[in-house]
Specification:
heterodimer; A: 110 residues; five-stranded antiparallel sheet; 11 strands; globular; B: mainly beta; seven-stranded mixed sheet
Chain lengths: 110, 111
């Protein structure tokens, strides 16, 4: 069973700061997801990675397969970025669902 | 319209009652999943299905059952609800490219 660890668990920052959330996993994977969950509860997929780096707007996700580590970066953070960010991995063939980290609760203060 | 829908969105019930949570999707995906989210524990897989004739147990299937009535529909049942099944439940679909799409969630409270 893959173990997924996220850090930090909680993060409070000021608007405009550069944010980094880290994720490590114990077993080789097919792909890694970064998910966002707002206070209303809905979950949105931000990125799916199997190698390298992806960028969407102010969000950047990287993955190092050899080190079993991924990071999610937010540039020029804004209060609307406040949410829980969840790392999740797919192992093996991928059909048997995701294994999730416990999430990072991010608060961006104006 | 949302690609993955769940009904009901909120439900309060009593211990011992039978509850069914329903999920429908218009993504055309064969893979469907039920997850449960608890504070401090994160999301965990309850059951998953690759197609109508395929049902698989996940990490925490005890106390739950599922039915895949059609490609688009996947229901989760609690035969006799207990308070520690109080949680937020998510249905999701999965593409063959490992993308996952989540429903809006069902908040279940068992008194």
């Amino acid at each position: 069973k893959n173990e997924v660890e996220q850090s930090p668990q909680n993060l409070t920052a000021q608007e405009g700061e550069f944010i980094t959330i880290n994720c490590s996993y114990s077993v080789g994977i097919s792909a890694l997801h970064w998910l966002q969950q707002h206070p209303g509860g809905g979950i949105v997929s931000l990125f799916m990675l199997s190698s390298g780096k992806k960028k969407h707007g102010r969000l950047i996700a990287t993955i190092n397969i050899q080190e079993k580590h991924s990071s999610l970066h937010i540039t020029a953070s804004h209060p609307r970025d406040s949410a829980v960010y969840i790392c999740a991995v797919i192992s093996g063939g991928g059909a048997d669902g995701l294994t999730f980290g416990k999430g990072t609760h991010l608060i961006i203060q104006p | 319209d949302a690609d993955v829908t769940q009904t009901p969105r909120n439900r309060i019930t009593k211990t011992g009652k039978r509850i069914m949570l329903e999920c429908s999707q218009t993504k055309g995906h064969d893979r469907m999943y039920w997850y449960r989210q608890d504070p401090g524990l994160g999301l965990r897989l309850i059951y998953y299905s690759f197609d109508v004739k395929d049902i698989n147990k996940g990490e925490i299937s005890d106390g739950y059952s599922v039915s895949r009535q059609a490609q688009a529909k996947f229901s989760l049942s609690l035969e006799s609800a207990i308070p520690n099944q109080t949680a937020l439940y998510f249905c999701a679909t999965g593409s063959t490219y490992n993308e996952q799409f989540f429903g809006p969630g069902t908040r279940l409270t068992v008194l």
